[in-house]
Design goal:
552 residues; alpha/beta; 47% helix; 14% strand
């Protein structure tokens, strides 16, 4: 009886399945391959396996759905997920659903062997997760975030079962299992294989097909008829080029590939162009032919842009029009001529008067302005901000409240708080014990607090490790939003401390340095979410609500 661990390898790409099998067999593991999740489940129902290695993106049923079913039916079976579409989102989901590790493709043989050894030896431990959290991950496919039951109600179970990663149902085309004489080395039907019933010795030894190599050599031997080429330094077929450019172009080609016609040829070409009655150089259409369709007026006005020039004419003389001012002038109407001032200086005095009047009107009244360096109307600003704000403005546009005024305002605020009735405060208290946001970037910390406060959550903040530990020691939290990189914190030690101090709290990692490795490790240690920065308000709200649903 074999004592070697049995491993199930699942991937819809047969080549990858075979490669994984080849790598792990060298370590004396017993391997069983499956090309789909359904085939894997059928095999696992008949035989027990120590480890499941599964691809994530597969048609019909993806790897996460397979993992979910395996952990439900055979919880002792360990699992490792692999994918060519690695993301922090699927990495966290895989680990939280019970996978021991998550390997992005392509991976090296050493990486695969090390992961399998760590999984089977017990070095990797499953993340602690409730059945409620595992059940909350219910999607058709990795890139189709819809609930399978909802889709089934609308489209039917048959459609939902065939949905693949392209959002389109996968249509299965069955091919014959074995083609007679098919050689896997050359990936083709081979005559030698038909005769021998096996791959030739040369192919077996070198893993390269000698038949394909011969075909490539024969293809290289094909000679070109040099008589048809334009020249030794221009190895192009004469007839092919002439069909596109004409024989004159080839006749005038120089050694550098530029076609330069002789002066006599150029003159003859221009003469031919002139005879053809073209409208313009870039409008190579016969003028008479165009005129038959559009009319002579259109052709006469056609320009280099192919658009006819539209000439706008005005009446030759306008009553009282003075050319000095370029306008109709009352003085000109009365005198029948331009005024003396305009005649002498060739400048219109009427226009000069209008400019001076406009300049006087443009002078702003500085009396109602706040200050010389703050040219805003005092009354307009007061309407928006209040008189206290404007009175306390200093030169750089910053409000600086006098100390005495500040004391008075604080006393007023304290008195107002004392007058508030207790029932009102109880009615406004949030439904959840609270949220702690830990991020050394104050701006990010404040933004998260503002986003969540709008939903009625009570949010505490910490910008350092010491502040975070002080908050965790003072009270318990339902949710901790934790930055990955904080000065003075090594790796994920703060996450470890949060889980130890407040084991019931759900943790969401937020980071500007997202990576698959940190996402996997964080999920393994207990994080239920992983948000790369920058994130949108909706993303932070959705992650928070999902964490509270899991905690409920």
């Amino acid at each position: 009886m074999s004592t070697q661990p049995k491993i199930m390898v699942v991937d819809d790409e047969v080549g990858i399945c075979k490669n994984v099998e080849k790598i792990l067999k060298k370590s004396n593991y017993e391997i069983t391959r499956a090309s789909s999740a359904k085939e894997a489940l059928a095999l696992m129902a008949e035989e027990s396996f120590s480890l499941l290695i599964s691809d994530i993106v597969m048609p019909e049923m993806n790897g996460l759905e397979l993992l979910k079913m395996v952990k439900k039916e055979w919880p002792v079976t360990r699992a490792v997920m692999m994918t060519a579409y690695a993301s922090t989102d699927t990495a966290v989901k895989a680990i939280r659903m019970g996978a021991l590790d998550y390997i992005p493709k392509p991976f090296t043989p050493d990486e695969l062997r090390a992961t399998v050894e760590n999984a089977l030896s017990g070095k990797l431990v499953e993340a602690r997760i409730s059945e409620k959290e595992r059940d909350s991950i219910n999607i058709i496919d990795v890139d189709i975030p819809f609930d399978s039951d909802e889709v089934t109600k609308v489209t039917g179970k048959g459609y939902a079962d065939t949905l693949g990663p392209s959002d389109m149902p996968v249509v299965e085309v069955k091919m014959p299992d074995n083609l007679e004489g098919f050689c896997e080395v050359g990936n083709m039907v081979c005559d030698i294989f038909k005769k021998l019933g096996a791959t030739c010795k040369a192919g077996t030894k070198t893993a390269a097909c000698p038949q394909l190599a011969k075909k490539k050599k024969r293809a290289k031997r094909k000679t070109v008829d040099t008589k048809k080429l334009i020249g030794i330094d221009q190895p192009f077929d004469y007839d092919e080029v002439a069909a596109v450019s004409g024989p004159e172009y080839i006749h005038n080609l120089r050694s550098d590939g530029v076609s330069i016609p002789y002066y006599e040829d150029l003159k003859a070409n221009l003469a031919r162009l002139a005879e053809r009655n073209k409208i313009d150089v870039d409008v190579p259409f016969d003028a008479d032919e165009v005129a038959q369709v559009t009319g002579k007026a259109y052709v006469d006005h056609a320009t280099r842009t192919d658009i006819p020039t539209v000439e706008i004419t005005v009446s030759e003389s306008v009553e009282g029009f003075c050319e000095v001012g370029d306008m109709v002038c009352d003085i000109f109407k009365k005198l029948g001529a331009t005024c003396k001032a305009g005649t002498k200086t060739a400048a219109c005095p009427q226009l000069a008067k209008k400019k001076r009047a406009a300049a006087k009107k443009a002078v702003a009244d500085t009396a109602p302005l706040i200050a010389p360096d703050m040219p805003f109307n005092y009354d307009e600003v007061v309407l928006v901000t209040g008189r206290d704000y404007v009175d306390q403005l200093i030169y750089d546009g910053t409000v600086q409240m006098p100390y005495e005024t500040l004391k008075i305002n604080m006393q007023k605020m304290a008195a107002a708080e004392a007058q508030e009735v207790t029932p009102r405060r109880v009615a406004q208290a949030p439904a959840h014990p609270g949220i702690l946001v830990v991020d050394d970037e104050v701006a990010v910390n404040n933004n998260i607090r503002k986003i969540l406060a709008k939903k009625g959550y009570q949010v505490d903040q910490a910008v350092s490790k010491d502040e975070a530990m002080e908050c965790l020691g003072a009270k318990s939290y339902s949710l901790v939003l934790l930055d990955l990189r904080i000065p003075g914190v090594k790796g994920l030690e703060l996450l470890e401390a949060v889980v130890e101090k407040n084991p019931d709290a759900k943790v969401i990692m937020i980071t500007g340095y997202a990576s698959i490795e940190t996402a996997v490790e964080a999920a393994r240690m207990g994080a239920v979410g992983y948000l790369p920065k920058p994130f949108t308000p909706d993303e932070i709200r959705n992650a928070t609500e999902l964490a509270f649903q899991i905690a409920a």
